[in-house]
Structure formats: C-alpha cells, structure tokens
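Two folds, back to back.
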Amino acid sequence: MSDISRAQAEAALSSYIDPYLESDLVSAGCVRDIRIDQSRISVDIHLDYPCEFLKNGIAQMLQTALENIDGCDSADVNISWAVTAANHQAEPEAIAAVKNIIAVASGKGGVGKSTTAVNLAVALAHDGARVGLLDADIYGPSQGIMLGVADGTRPQTIDNKWFVPVEAHGLKSMSMAYLVTESTPMVWRGPMVAGALMQIMTQTQWGELDYLIVDMPPGTGDIQLTLSQKFPVSGAVIVTTPQDIALADAKKGIEMFRKVNIPVLGMIENMSMHICSQCGHAEHIFGDDGAERLAELYDTKVLGSLPLARYIREQSDEGTPVVAADDCSEVSMMYRHAARNMAVALARRNAQGGGQVPSIEISDD
C-alpha cells in the first residue's frame, strides 16, 4: 500500500467547486488542516458564510472524493463556519455586538423590496446565522404584517431605556408598526423621521447578531442619509425589476451609496419573470437581463433573480414569508441562493478591510 500524500488529498478536495465562492476550497484558502494517518485522512475546513444547511452535504461529497484516493480506507471531513465582522469604528451601544449592518434598498417603490428583505433575513437565519430585521420605512412600515406579528403588539422594555425586539420566524425584529396603530399616519417632516430612526436603532437591545438587515424606504432621502452617516453600514443590496423605469431609479440608489462610500454588494432582480400558475409557462413580462446590464455597468453582480409569483404574495399577506413556509420549495431556494451570494460578497468585502463609517459630502455632480 502506497503512502497518501498531502498533494493527493488537496487534489481530491479541489474537485469540488463551491458555487458561492466560485472556487475550489483549497484555492479559496478554506482548508485549515489536513492530517494523514496511514490510510486515514482527516480534514478541517472553515467557511466565512452561513452554511449550516449545506455543510453536511459538502462534507459528504468531499469525503467521497478523499476515499477515492488509492490507499485511503476512510476520510473524515469537519466543516465549520463563522460570519466575519466589518471593521467598524466606534458605534452606539445598542449595535456594538452587531457584526454587519446590511441595507436593502430600492430607487423606487413597488419593486418588492420589503418582501425581498424579510425573505433574505429568514434565509440567513435558516442557514444558522443570528439575524435582526429593522423596518426603517417610518412612513409605511410593513414588516410586522409580513412577519405575522399581530396588530397592537408592543415591544417589551428594559429599565425604560431599551426596546426588546419582537421575535418572529427566528428573527429579532423592530418596526415603527410596533409603536403605533395600523391606521396611524406618520405625518412627519424629515427631521422627525430621522429622529425616529435614530431612536429605534439606538434604543433597541439587538444583542449579538451576525447580520442586521435594514428594510429601507424607497428613494434616496432623509432615512438613507441618516443611516449612512450615523451607523456603520457594511454594505447595501439594491432591489429592482427588469423594466427600464425601475432600472433608471436603481441607478440613483447605486449612485447614492457610492457617494457615501457604502459598497453595493449586489443587485436582486425581482419579478424577473411571471410563472403561470396553471401551466408553469415562464414569461419575461417586464423585460429581461436588465439587472445584468446594470450590474456590469457598476462592476457589481446580480445576487439572484426572483419570479413574479402569486405564492410569494399570498405568503407575505398571511404573515409567513415563503422561506419560512417551506425553505426547500423552488422559490425559497431562490431566496436562499441570493442570501448566500450576499453573505459571500460581504465576507470578501470584510476581508479587504471595508466597513468604515463614511463621511458625507453633498455636491452637485
């Protein structure tokens, strides 16, 4: 029996290409240790994105590849993962234990941004991450409905200083909807809206989170500037539809985040196609490849494309996001795929030392 070499083990491990890293695990630097004891191989692998759902399947494929090496009787593959934290400057006490803040934004309303935000958050939680969801749309909060939180629910308080997040579907959530009635209109000017965001953000006891997903209001106004200037936002995700008018507004959203030095992690193309509930026929009723062209223009990527499906709307209205309703359905897997792409894009950004609080300069260009 010939001795097994480390090179043989690395060659076997390199046969698996991680679909999110878009690389084999050896080249990506994920292999922490390889131990060879005569005919037995033990491997430790560490990933920088949540993969609790995937890791057993990955380990099994790698184990099979290693046991196919001539002379290997058995192989053991241990996969661990952890979410890296952005390189933050000093931050408010409430978010001191939050590793990453991600803004989910759009240039205009009606593109499914809130639906996307809640399903991305649930997808990350189902992959093992600790996730919070902040509804920053002060004028039209909707996350309470999407999470199935009963109208009239109020957050508990600690020492009359902290709000305790409302937990639903594995998320810690906070929204203006929890502080007012469903029919109360927020007839506020910009400074009051910005002040409300500051209060919700800094007086909520978020605790330890891997990700705080912020569902932004549409546009590029006071909330966007307040969040960008006052909090260490790690990255932004732009939600759009394929039609030209939505893409034109998405450009403004991308440009805004570029001006305040917040990296755009990628784009999510919502309503990319309509799937007929009767025959299953898919049709690009709003156009196609629009997000791909825009992503190429701004040197970013499309994290995922999601269909226009009645099932998504029905589950949102019922207070059970589609990923929470059935995390293995076809639509749910689309959201989970997008969430993992987002997590990897952020991990790469953090590895480069990103995440500083930006300074904002207003100019006419």
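---
second:
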Amino acid sequence: MSTLDVVAGAVRRDETVEIVLLLAFAGGYIDAYTWIIHGVMANAQTANLIFLWVYATAGNWAKAFHFVPPILAFAVGIVIAAWLRRAAGERARTISTLVEIALLIVIGILHNRLPDMAGTLGISVVAAMHAAMFIKVKGTVCSTVMITGNMRQAIENIFAVVYGDAPLGTLRKSGIFFALCAVFGFGAAAGAYATKIIPNLALGLPVIALLIVLLRYETTPREVTG
C-alpha cells in the first residue's frame, strides 16, 4: 500500500485510526505521569538527553545522571520489541501490549513501595515497546509517543492541498495527524490531572486504553477496509 493511501482499501489491523488514537492517548498520559512522579520523560528521550547535557555542562552531575536510566531503559525496550518481532511474528504486537499492561499494573500496585528509579525504568520500557510496535496509521508512518513528526506531516499535507498538487485523501490524512496531536495532548492533560488527584490509581487509565487496544486488535480482521 502506498504511504499516501488513506482512502478505502486494505489496512492492517494495527494501523487503524481507532487503535492509533488510543495509543496516542496512552502515550501522552504516560509522559505526563512520569514527569510529575519521577521528573523524567517516558517517551521523549530527546528531552531527557537535553536535560542530561544541560545539567552536565553546569556541573550538576547528580541531576544529570537522573536522566540516564530512562534513556537506557528505553533502549532495552526497543531491543525487546525488536526481538519480539523476530520471535513472535504477527503475534508480537499482542504480546507486547500484554507485557505493557502487566508492567503498568505492577508499577501501579507497587507505586508506594517501588523506588522512583524502578518505576521510571519500567515505564520507559513500556514506552519504548509502545513506540517500536505501532508505527503506522493507514500505511503512513506516524508516532503515538510524540507529536513532532505528526505535526510536520499534518502541516505539509495542508500545504499540499492549498498548493493544489495533493493526491486524493491528503486532506483526510492531515486530519488524522492533527487528531493524533490533539489526542496526545488530551492524554497528557488527563495524565497530569489524574496523577495529582489519584496518584496511586493514575496508571489505571492507560491500562484500560491498552486493554481496549488489545481487544480491538484481537477482534479485528488482519486486514480491514479503511
């Protein structure tokens, strides 16, 4: 399928708009949670790297090293996801989602007992698997853990429509990418609110979102009509 094809046709079940939007909500939510609870980003390793070097150049090594573990844990999560794709094939996304749910439940239950670092490491692994497994919407590369690339594609597609050389379906694709940005932001807002109001239960919402993803993924035909 062409990467520009967002009109009717066969779409992989992990690339449907509903699943990707749910994942974007969970991605924004988890980042807000880890920032408030642990002072690091779960998904945005660019931000962690910037903070690391800002504090390092200021000579504040204690704060600088605070951002190293989530970066390393994210790398571990990417390796796990790559191994799952090789070992499990089509079942890799199902297994990955189950692992993510299990890790979030464990971290949520042990919230008051786990050291901050342990919670950060677990959530960064979740974020990495999330980022590595679900990377397209209707055949087009996207991100469910940050908005930079999605925003770029949304704006570029609007420009192409205005300029007059856009293929059929470009405007709809732009709307999908704007929706991803909005839902990610909504997830971050919900995560921030829930983490402050019910910190011990806050991870329940992304777990529910991932359970719905799992249910939708398992009950949707391998290819659906988009």
